[in-house]
Design brief:
The complex is a heterodimer. Chain A is of the alpha/beta class. Chain A folds into two domains: 180 residues, Rossmann fold (3-Layer(aba) Sandwich); 68 residues, no CATH class. Chain A has nine helices and ten strands. In chain A, helix 4 packs across helix 5. Chain A is globular. The longest helix of chain B has 38 residues. The two termini of chain B are 36 Å apart. Chain B is flat and about 80 Å long. By secondary structure, chain B is mainly alpha-helical. Classes of the chains: A alpha/beta, B mainly alpha. The interface between A and B is medium-sized, with 26 and 21 residues. The complex binds adenosine-5'-triphosphate (ATP) and magnesium ion (MG). Adenosine-5'-triphosphate binds next to helix 2 of chain A. The site of magnesium ion (MG) has 4 residues of chain A, from helix 2.
């Protein structure tokens, strides 16, 4: 109980500090129901969340609690049933192409090679060929796929596909990044690399990031704020500001007692939610 | 020790080298050996078949004749008939006419079907409006239209083209339409998130995604194009392989009939090979089926 009290205090302190930044995405009393043949089902309800420009938000919660639903709304792929979702202060109307979205089941175009897939957004935006080649090569190296540019998606492993999809989104530098479990299928080493790279890019460019993960440690290591979801119905049960200095050194953070404290506090909130399922 | 001993001891009996096995022994790749063997058998079968045909067919009553050549002709006579057509300057012009009808009709029909299938595929409203009409016209046995086409386009290549187009266009239309409908919406959304225009979405996602369906529509309709062109020539014409075929049949010239059929078979095979090459190139991104059958 007392731990939740302190985190709320810290939350208000951090909010006061960051108040000058404009709000990029905001959810006001947002709910979403799905109607299937048999019944109506509330996926999320009463979501209130304001994300400031340049903020790195991690969303964590049990499976099926509406995390992807929330991102889909920000991307304009899904409309809310109640409440409002604003982007740059304006209601989202149709596809929001100011965001880049690495979706959970992200798919490449199977008839294009990895290279061609990654250069697709640049082609669409009529970036000149020379610049295209450069940027594609750069981002492929970043995700460790430099050797695989000529392969077709059917010739890649699951983790490679994930990384290619990530590269495809990073390459065109959208203002806001929506990332739905982007490192889910990767091994520990690769995961660590990509977490570092992502933070580096973010520290350089200060995009707004909404990052969904199942991994509490990942959330705390990367986020400015961790949003904890509960299930049945999907709702926000807690928002934890993470105040560790940046740039963050993962190695020393992991052994930091403060890190352990935050971890166990959030774990205490999360684990009963997970058990419910 | 004991364990490895048993394994060592077991080995010579377990894997006796098949002495008579044709593969590997010559140092050749077993796949290649197999391929060569298959080809050799195929050639042998073909030669044997032709030889038997030549040997057993002939005028009734002659030695070792089992079948009257009036019904089945024989390879040498067919060859002669073709030689005659060449010397009369009949073969190449006829072939040319039939090829023209087939290819031009196929290309125009495919284009029409592609465009129509694509437009209706991406606009559900238009599709809903047009569907009963399209289905109704598709239901007409196309050969029933021959008299009308003759009336409208004359006895020349025009009426034949119209018929080929009317057959190919529908086949390609339906497969294109299905292909466009089948596009993965995740891909479309992805393109739209990248700020692609409607046209870009169609060019970069919808069309390539429909390509598998379109290709199958094309490869189904290509042989039809030939069939329909020849049928039209047989029904009413004074040119083309179909005409040559009917002429020969009407004169009870069995060798000529077989010669025409033989040329048509070659044309059909060439057409199929062409389509297959195109298919391989356009769908080169598809995962290869695991090779190496048991
Ligand atoms: N199109 C849909 N039709 C019906 N129900 C849906 C649809 N999309 C999502 N849902 C339901 O809404 C709930 C939330 O789904 P969502 O995909 O947002 O979960 P999630 O939090 O991302 O889960 P996970 O961590 O497993 O990815 C789920 O129970 C899901 O079954
Ligand atoms: Mg999800």
């Amino acid at each position: 109980m007392s731990s939740i009290g302190t985190s709320t205090e810290r939350a208000s302190a951090a909010a006061a500090q960051a108040d000058d930044r404009p709000i990029a995405v905001s959810y006001h009393q947002v709910g979403r129901t799905f109607t299937t043949a048999k019944r109506t089902f509330t996926a999320v309800q009463g979501i209130d969340l304001e994300i400031r420009k340049g903020e790195f938000i991690c969303i964590i919660g049990p499976s099926g609690c509406g995390k992807s639903t929330l991102l889909n709304m920000a991307a304009g792929l899904l409309t809310q049933s109640t409440g409002e979702v604003l982007y740059d202060g304006k209601p989202i109307n149709g596809i929001n192409n100011d965001v880049g979205y690495v979706t959970q089941k992200d798919t490449l175009l199977p008839w294009r090679t990895v290279e061609k897939n990654v250069s697709l957004p640049l082609e669409v935006q009529k970036v000149p060929r020379r610049e295209r080649k450069e940027r594609v090569a750069q981002v492929l190296d970043l995700v460790g796929l430099g050797q695989y540019g000529n392969r077709y998606p059917s010739q890649l492993s699951g983790g490679m596909l994930k990384r290619a999809a990530l590269a495809q989104t990073l390459v065109y530098r959208p203002n806001t990044l929506l990332m739905d479990e982007p490192f889910g299928a990767l091994d520990a080493q690769l995961r660590l690399n990509l977490q570092r790279q992502t933070l580096e890019i973010w520290e350089r460019e200060r995009k707004t990031v909404l990052f969904v993960t199942h991994d509490l440690e990942e959330a705390i290591l990367m986020a400015d704020r961790v949003v904890v979801f509960g299930a049945n119905p999907g709702r926000i049960i807690h928002v934890e500001p993470i105040t560790f200095a940046r740039p963050r050194d993962f190695g020393s953070l992991r052994t930091d007692p403060e890190f352990a404290a935050v971890w166990s506090r959030l774990w205490a909130l999360l684990s009963p939610q997970m058990e419910d399922h | 020790m004991t364990r490895s001993d048993t394994i060592e001891a077991g080995r010579p009996e377990a894997a006796p080298k098949p002495v008579g096995a044709p593969a590997v022994s010559g140092g050749l790749n077993p796949r290649l050996t197999r391929r060569l063997l298959i080809t050799a058998i195929q050639v042998a079968l073909l030669v044997a078949g032709l030889a038997a045909w030549e040997y057993f067919a002939g005028k009734p009553g002659e030695p070792h004749v089992l079948i009257d050549q009036y019904y089945v002709s024989k390879p040498s006579l067919i060859w002669e008939a073709m030689g005659l057509w060449v010397s009369q300057n009949l073969l190449w012009p006829s072939l040319w006419v039939t090829l023209q009808t087939t290819v031009i009709g196929f290309v125009l029909g495919a284009l029409a079907g592609l465009v129509a299938g694509f437009v209706l595929g991406v606009s559900p409203f238009l599709a809903a409006v047009c569907q009963p009409f399209v289905d109704a016209i598709y239901a007409i046995p196309r050969l029933a239209l021959v008299p009308l086409f003759m009336l409208w386009f004359g006895i020349g290549i025009g009426s034949k083209l119209a018929l080929v187009i009317s057959v190919v266009a529908f086949l390609v239309f339906y497969s294109t339409y299905a292909g466009v409908k089948d596009v993965d919406h995740l891909l479309v959304d992805k393109l739209r998130l990248m700020r692609a225009s409607r046209l870009q979405v169609h060019l970069k996602a919808t069309l390539p995604s429909a390509m598998t369906f379109i290709i199958s529509g094309l490869s189904v309709s290509a042989p039809y194009a030939l069939v329909v062109a020849v049928t039209a020539e047989m029904m009413s014409s004074n040119r083309g392989l179909g005409y040559l075929l009917v002429q020969s049949a009407n004169q009870f010239d069995t060798a000529g009939t077989f010669a025409a059929i033989f040329v048509l078979m070659i044309v059909g095979i060439a057409l199929m090979l062409l389509i297959r090459l195109m298919e391989m190139w356009l769908l080169r991104w598809k995962p290869k089926r695991p090779t190496g059958r048991a």
